[in-house]
Structure formats: C-alpha cells, structure tokens
C-alpha cells in the first residue's frame, strides 16, 4: 500500500529535497507541496493524505495552527512536525494537540523516510530522545490542574501502572517484562487506556502522564 504525503515548508529548496527523497521510495507518494500553513490546511482538506509534514515556523498559519486545524478536521491525516530547533514550545503544543511526533530538519535521509512510515502506520514517533526531553521541559511550566488528574479516575490500578510506563517511554515489550505479564495483555491495557482517556496515540499518553504527575521530569 502506498503512503500518501503532503509537505509544508516555506523554503522551496527544503520542500524539493524532501519531495525528491520521499518520491524515490516505492511505497511513498508526495501528493502536494505547500509554502505556508494555510495552503497546507487547504491541500489536506482536498487530498486527505496519510501524513502531512509541517514546518513549525511558516507564514499565514504557523505549523501549530495548521496542525490544530488538520487534526480537528479528522481526515485521518497524521501530523509530523519538522523543526530546525531541538527545543521548541510550538512542537510541544502540537504533540498535546495530537501530532504524531516531530523530527529535526537535519535528520538523515533514512530517518525522514522511516519517520513517515512509522507515523503513517499509526505509531507515535518518540525517537529521537529529544522528544521526551522536550515534553519534560514544557511539562515543568504547565500547571497541574484538577482537570488533568481527574481524567485518571476511571482507570484501574493496573492501567495506571501501564500509563506510567508508557509515559517513561517503554515499549509494549518492555512494559510486559517490567510487569511480568504477556505483551498481548499490555496491548489490551493500552487500547483500553486510549479509549477511556480519548487519546490518539502514545505521544498524547506521554504528555498526559507528565501533566497528571504520574511521571515527573528528570
């Protein structure tokens, strides 16, 4: 199955380079390119790509504003943020909105291709480790509220344990080993967590784990 993508960056050379790289893959097709956030929103509404790659800083609408509109429209398009900086408050907010991850624009070619495939498959891009560091940094400045912690009231004790370990960045296999349970059982707990807490993916689960104090910044 071919993965469809839209690229949004205000630098023409960056767009062209990324498009050439992705189109060279047998399983990826770039359907369109946008030079600003508003054009990215328009293209996604028209083309419904599997993945949209959004530069954080663009004219008209920035990457955060574009991500919010695309995610809210619920086309099924996964959002992958691109940034020049390894710490950026826009990116944290995008992750909290439901973006599936972010990647530095100086990433290696195979990292970019892998990121598109991972996000298209419905997984959260939590690597490189800078994503976790970014979430930690900005969770420190976000007030912990009763609204956040109240979201955990409907969870079982085991589900809280699983959410805590997801927040620490552990995979299902690692969680299974930590809790001495089957990996399939972990998958069941994670699925129930997502349903109860209305989470899109593991990135949002990590954000919630920090916001509620289940995981504390290092």
From TrEMBL:
Residue ranges constituting the HTH luxR-type domain according to the UniProt record: 148-213
Organism: Psychromicrobium lacuslunae
Gene3D superfamilies the UniProt entry points to: 3.40.50.2300
Residues annotated with 4-aspartylphosphate modification: 55
Protein name per UniProt: LuxR family transcriptional regulator
GO biological process: phosphorelay signal transduction system; regulation of DNA-templated transcription
UniProt cross-references to PANTHER family, sorted A to Z: TRANSCRIPTIONAL REGULATORY PROTEIN NARL-RELATED, TWO-COMPONENT RESPONSE REGULATOR
Matches recorded under Pfam families: GerE, Response_reg
Source organism, top-level taxon: Bacteria
UniProt-recorded Gene Ontology molecular function terms: DNA binding
Claim: Phosphoprotein is one of the keywords in the record: yes
Occurrences of domain Response regulatory (ranges): 4-120
InterPro entries assigned to the protein according to its UniProt record, in alphabetical order: CheY-like_superfamily, NreC/VraR/RcsB-like_REC, Sig_transdc_resp-reg_C-effctor, Sig_transdc_resp-reg_receiver, Tscrpt_reg_LuxR_C, WalR-like
Keywords annotated in UniProt: DNA-binding, Phosphoprotein, Transcription, Transcription regulation
Species lineage: Bacteria, Bacillati, Actinomycetota, Actinomycetes, Micrococcales
